[in-house]
Design goal:
Helix content is 14%, strand content 30%. The protein folds into two domains: 203 residues, YerB-like (YerB-like fold); 153 residues, YerB-like fold (3-Layer(bba) Sandwich), CATH 3.50.90.10. The protein starts with a helix and ends with a strand. A hairpin with a 7-residue loop joins strand 24 and strand 25. It has five helices and 28 strands. The strands form eight sheets. The protein has a ten-stranded mixed sheet, with helices on both faces. Strands 13, 14, 15, 16, 19 and 28 form a six-stranded antiparallel sheet that branches. It is of the alpha+beta class.
């Protein structure tokens, strides 16, 4: 990490930790500089006459050479996005390369959307950091960008802000809105309606976040190690998944779906967190339903469509750190390192699989029952995290 940022890291951490709860009141912010109209478009237009023969290293999707030139100037960016009912519909999820979903507290889920080969005009609502999302974004090479608004900070195993500091990320590749602000992040009180709670009003623009990282943190596609002076590409340690082309339309089933609950069945809002993935034969992809309704991206007003759904089963526990957010209980923890079972929804069927991840920095990889690594279809991949024993109904 750059020496010039080390001196301010500790101060920023305690400022962020101390400000977290107060910041998320339900009274609209008086800091007007956080407010902004809908930002301008990112400006990139794909030339339809160019061949799409450049593979995205994150999800295998194929793009044009100018698009590759653009993504090779930056590094992966993970953004925390809320999924409480009041935060729907979200913006930007369909433009991500990979999305992770897991329960944070009390059966309410949150997303980590990872961008690299694509960008998004608006992303959000942006929410706070959690420890297991740090484990997943750590898979994306040297110093991946991690954007969030504050984070869990109570002492113990769920102390995400403390872990960010211990990793050497703070004021470097960690992009906490509390220490960055406008115009990289902004507030929009009207996007989800004038009665939206303040905690659901922070948004970002991927191009502005990448621009901030490059100009203020000297983080582009490369970085310089202060100790050795060596220039390192972000993907020096990155391990890509394996990818394949779609199966022929004649081989695709007419119909398939998978459904599961993410919240406790006893919770009054459990139905809001029932997820269904409905197979679409023509696109060889899955349409997402969230809480019984089509899950649309507000940017496009189109239903989210993904090529692969990977369901990972993990141990799930509660930190018992005395934290409570909106009455939803204490922080969730997952056994996301080691190995476990998985189900992969792809090509209109479910494949029984296993997953492995040795350490925080290692890539999670997926294998079939014979031990062969599974090649995923090219395109948006969605990772669902479920506790061991959770039922997934397929038909």
């Amino acid at each position: 990490m750059n020496k010039k940022v080390i001196l301010i890291a500790a101060g920023l951490y305690f400022l962020s930790a101390g400000t977290s709860l107060a910041f998320f009141s339900r009274t609209p912010s008086q800091n007007k500089e956080l407010e902004s109209p809908v930002p301008s478009k990112t400006g990139f237009k794909r030339d339809p006459s160019l061949p799409r023969n450049e593979e995205c290293p994150l999800n295998g999707a194929m793009y044009t050479k100018p698009e590759r030139d653009l993504w090779e100037s930056r590094r992966p960016l993970g953004i925390m996005i809320e999924n409480s009912k009041a935060a729907r519909p979200q913006s930007g999820l369909s433009s991500a390369d990979v999305v992770y979903e897991a329960v944070t507290e009390g059966g309410i889920t949150r997303f980590l959307a990872v961008f690299y080969c694509q960008d998004a005009d608006v992303v959000g609502p942006v929410r706070s950091a959690r420890t297991y999302y740090l484990d997943w974004i750590s898979e994306y090479g040297n110093s991946p960008l991690y954007a969030h608004v504050g984070g869990a900070n109570t002492p113990g195993p769920a102390n995400a802000l403390g872990q960010i500091n211990s990793y050497g990320w703070e004021a470097y590749n960690d992009l906490n809105q509390f220490s960055i602000g406008f115009p990289t992040f902004y507030r929009d009180y009207e996007r989800l309606g004038p009665d939206t709670a303040t905690e659901h009003t922070v948004y970002g623009v991927t191009s502005k976040i990448w621009d901030f990282a490059a100009k203020k943190r000297d983080l582009t596609n490369v970085e310089t190690d202060d100790r050795t002076g060596k220039v390192m590409a972000w993907n020096t340690t990155f391990v890509s998944w394996k990818f394949k082309d779609d199966i022929a339309i004649a081989e695709r089933p007419a119909a398939f779906s998978a459904q599961f609950g993410l919240s406790s069945s006893e919770a009054s809002y459990a139905n809001d967190y029932i997820v269904k993935w409905q197979y679409d034969k023509d696109s060889n992809a899955f349409l997402r339903f969230n809480g019984g309704v089509a899950h649309n991206d507000m940017n496009t007003n189109q239903q989210i469509l993904v090529k692969n759904v990977v369901i990972q089963f993990m141990t799930m526990s509660i930190a018992n750190d005395g934290y409570s957010e909106e009455g939803h209980g204490t922080h969730t923890l997952y056994g996301d390192k080691g190995q476990g079972k998985a189900k992969i929804l792809m090509d209109g069927k479910v494949t029984e699989a296993t997953w492995t991840k040795k350490t925080r920095l290692d890539r999670t990889r997926f294998f079939d029952i014979t031990g062969k690594e599974i090649a995923l279809n090219r395109g948006l991949t969605w990772i669902e995290i479920l506790p061991i024993g959770q039922t997934v109904a397929v038909q």
